Amino acid sequence: MEHNESGTSNSGEFLTFTLGAEEYGIDILKVQEIRGYDAVTRIANAPAFIKGVINLRGVIVPIIDLRIKFRLGEPTYDQFTVVIILNIGKRVMGAVVDGVSDVIQLSSNDLHPAPEFGSILDTRYILGLGTVENRMIIVMDIEKLMTSQEMSLVEASAAAA
Amino acid sequence: MSIDMSQFYQVFFDETSEHLASMEALLLDLDVDNPSLEDLNAIFRAAHSIKGGSGTFGFTDMTSVTHVLESLLDRLRKEELHLQAEMVDAFLAAGDTLRAQLEHHQGGPAADASEIVEVCARLNLLAAGNVTAAPTPAPAPAPAMAAPVRRARMECDLPAEIAGDPVRLANLLDGLSEIAALDVQLRPDADNPHLSLVLTTQKRDDELQELMSFYLEPDEITLSDADAVQQAYGFFDHAPGLDAVVPEVDDSFGYFEDAPGRPPAPEDEWYGFFDDAPGLPASTVQGLLHVEEVGVYGLFEDAAGKLENLPNRNIAPCDSPAAIEGQGYGIFVDAPGGLGLFDNAPGSQQITRTSAPAPMGNGQVQPPAPGRRLSDGPSVEVAKTGRRDNDRTVAAANAETSIRVSVEKVDQLINLVGELVITQAMLAEAASYLDPVQAEKLLAGIDLLARNTRDMQESVMSIRMLPMSMVFSRFPRVVRDLAGKLAKQVEMKTIGENTELDKGLIEKISDPLTHLVRNSLDHGIEIPEIRIAAGKNPKGTLTLKASHQGGNIVIEVIDDGAGLNRTRILSKAKERGLPVHDAMSDHEVWQLIFAPGFSTADVVTDVSGRGVGMDVVKRNIEGMGGRVELESSTGHGTRTVIRLPLTLAILDGMSVGVGGETFIVPITSVVESLQPSLDTIHTLAGDSRMVYIRGEYLPFISLADAFNLPGVEDITHGIIVVVEVEEGKAALFVDELLGQHQVVIKSLEENYRKVPGVSGATIMGDGRVALILDVTAVARMGLAGSGSHRRGLNTAP
Question: Which of A43, A137, B356, B396 could form a disulfide with B382 if both were Cys (CB 3.0 to 4.6 A apart)?
């Protein structure tokens, strides 16, 4: 894999999506597929941003609503709600976003370091800020985010690893 | 060793484990006083295969142990030594050592070096010790064994992976050169796997074949006497005066021709017939008995002079050689015109033949040795060869009936079939809205699909099923060792070894079962003196039984020992402060021994008595979704009954609805379900609720509260499901009962994490996910959370 886990990828393709008014990008190699939002099975006593689990062709996949997690946009669920199915390590998980916009090419030179403040997203999970046609793209380290303890998606022991 | 050997390691590990297992089984079955030669040979072969394999893969520690083992076995099977009970023990110990070494190579802990040395010393001692004490005459050597040192020609086609690998080839030749001086005439390579060697050795042909047995089947190796071939050539090339008899058979039968001055066949192998040519050391032709030659040999069925019978009798051989026969005979086709005649040469010519009983039987020709007739020797050889052929067919047939497949592949298949079942259920549901008249054909098709999917699911699940004999087979050894240690006489019986169980369960059941067997031997079955005093057979019986009962498998461990001692259990329980009283039913008393740390043994032995055990057994079995029950009668024995679900992958569940969500309650834990009435609900300490059902107060646990769901407010509109949990019973309050299904268990943890109160997930017919409840955990959650969650609810007083 050309992808570098530490997040210093030289150049690569990124899937961009919107959360509220902001535009985010994630490494396209982490994306398995994009699908519509289905009814989920709720999981008791889980944080509100974990919507529940769905049956993705026989695999039980947890669904996280990033809009709730980052308090961005309105968490509405209709036929336009999009779920990005991600492959993180050996796990499969889904992230609900407002909309998927584009696939862009960014090299590490195009990425500017994010300021320490001013973002809801902890800078630990931001690889940098990119610019495409005057739009600012916040490039996320989706793997680090999804396996972080605060997402409580994985057991504490697995997250530490 | 070269690195690419490692890809074969797993095969070696698997095969060696199998060899060790079969060796052990054979050893345990061996009748010490009168061992069957066949069993000894089988044990020897197993040891030999391990030696060959470990040598090839460079596990020299195993090679050295097997070597010692093999030498002793070799002496036994040659009847140079008598089998003794100590030898069986030593063999078993050697088997254990090998297993430990094997585990070490598989990444386990290193084998105990002192043990290895001890085992080897023990074997050596046994091998050396009794040489004189066993003067059993060696079996009358076959005539072919006479020659002490000889030159043997070996021809064979090596498997491509050896011929193509210079390292392995060199190993093979090195191995051979240890026992014989080699003269490699044709060295194989990747393109031409044919190996041609002349060995100067004392070894007999079968020993040479044995050496090669790791690479080739015995009958894939052609052995002949190197000198004989040369002489035979000479015989035909330059001895026109002698009469070689060559047969020719077709429908008109019986053309015979003497072939003075004509070499009858252009190939080496054909000359091979004439190994017993006059003047040669009597050597066997056995190595030459190729299938191709079968028919040819068969021709010479009777002694000379009865030639008119010949054609009728020799057609017996099976079909396969027939084609080759034709070929072979073709060589001789230009026979002289004498139809049905026999150009019998002068009296000096003789035709002799032997017949083999088997259809594949081989005969041998002994070409015209003036004045010499065939002895009985060759027919012995023939019978032997015939059997070897049969053995091989059996082995080949076995090999074809099973294949080694990785569990991963099977599990993938099971998953896919699970998907298919879900898809089929979705289709069926969608089709249920159609007009049955208009969509008649579609509905019939969907019905058929349902049936086919079900059948398919069953057969796919059966792939994972293994017979209980996989577990039971280890117990004869355990029982034997333990009975010896405890000075008890025990006979072990197994019933229903063919009952099949899921592989995952088979692996997990083995430890609890071992524990139960050890318990039975240690505490159950008495020593012979006590048994005799009690009027019982001094030999105790331990029975392992497996059977199907409904959707469960039932495994029983039955002994005819002393049984459980009620008073002793009760007094021990009192000592330990367990809540007991004398009026408890037997059943309740027996349950006490499942309490952690409970032991009634007066003496702690290294077998059992430490009190760790029955509680672990119970926990393990419950972890598999099973139950343990005990029945005992003082003085007559104990019966432990384990009930297990057939498989881990599928669960019988009852689906319940709470606040719009569906949950599955494992049916094994459901006792009953009923509609509650307000007057049966009572509060305890103003906080937690109890429900009074059939004379018992059960904790009332609302699933809606436990999972923070909006459940029904009015208790009379819901349903109470009474479930059995570890602590006893509990009343689970749900909104509604939905149905009963067999559900395929899916892991939540694979992509998510463990969820409290949930043991897994499944996919329902509509494609949605339903969570499977871990009722014990739910009960605990419900009890712990009842204070905080309940306040907002409108509950009964």
Answer: B356
